[in-house]
Structure formats: structure tokens, C-alpha cells
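Q: How would the C-alpha cells look for this protein?
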Amino acid sequence: MTKPIQHKSFKAMFQAGTYFIGDPCYALREDLYEKWGNENNYDDGDYKYFAVGSTAYGDGTYKDSYSNTEFGVDAGILGVVNMEYAEKNKYDTDFLNKLGKVIAVEKFLIFEYDHSSCTFTYTYDDNGKIEIETGFEEEEEEDSEEDY
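A: Here is the predicted structure in C-alpha cell form.
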């Protein structure tokens, strides 16, 4: 019997370094991705070398509320990956920047995941901020008929 994925809100802190913001499936080394799945059931959380949470609607494209930068999702997750644990020679920085965003952090990176709203917040150094709200669903206008 398959164990359901544990969804939870959490906060993770990272030191100075280079990080990929986006779907970890694009950057994280394959052996570490498989280890996360096998040992941790693909649960949301902080795994020290990366942190991950589930999007509200799975795969797709989500935007940063501040810059409108698009983040592609192919595994139904978003997170942060320390580039020291990235798959070497898989994708270069330019390509990763098309899928998400690679940032050099001089002081700190705080990643917060709010499961109730499926919001991902990244705060780094003194004024860097990325916020991706995956639970937001644009309202569709409904055609209404008026009674005469």
C-alpha cells in the first residue's frame, strides 16, 4: 500500500551559496532525488541540501508575484536546491534560468512554504524576495443571462 505524501508548512534556512529556485527535478542530482523519494516518500520538507513543497495544481507554470518571472513545474513541486548538489552537466545556468532562477546568495536564504495556501516565499540577503502563489486560481468570467 502506498503511503500518502505528507504535506506540511515549514521554514528552511540556507547559508551563503548558489541556489536554484524552482522545481527540484530540474537541478537536484538524480541519486539524491531518488533518495528523497525512497527514504522520505516525496514528503514536503527541509532536507538540508534542498527543500521542497507541493504546488496546489501540480505541473504547469507559476509566476513570481514581484517580478512576474515564470517558474516551470514538471514534478508538481517547487523548492530550493543548493547548487553543490545539482546534477553536473545536466543543464547550464542559462537553461536553469529559463526553468526557474539561479541566485548567488551572499548572506542567507530563507525558504518558507505555506501548505494551506500553497505559497512559496524566498527571502535572501537584505532585500531579495520571490513569492510564488500556486493556490491562486484566476476567476473565469461566467456568461450570465438576465431574466426579462
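The CA atoms of residues 140 and 146 lie 18 Å apart.

The beta strands are 10-22, 45-46, 50-54, 60-63, 70-73, 77-82, 101-114, 119-124, 128-133.

Upvote if useful.
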